[in-house]
Predict the structure.
Amino acid sequence: MRVNELLEGEQDLEDWAATASLCKSSRSSASLGASALASCKSQGFRKRSHKRKFKLKAKGPRSSVENKKVKGKKYGGPLPDYGSGPVQSGSKKKS
């Protein structure tokens, strides 16, 4: 069976998520593909590696998520999803 037979439509590609066994394996983050690594981080199986600060609680202060396993909003975690939706450039209206 080939890959193009497994993932046929756009919906299949959007719903794809790395398996828990792949994320919890001893493979290094560098040896995983970018999509699989991002999926593992969003599911909370791998540690995050950036220094941005997020509000993890509604009324709480911003805190760093570096080297922490924090789930993304899609998987029931507190980390917001900034990657969805169209990009709006500039706030000024053109006349």
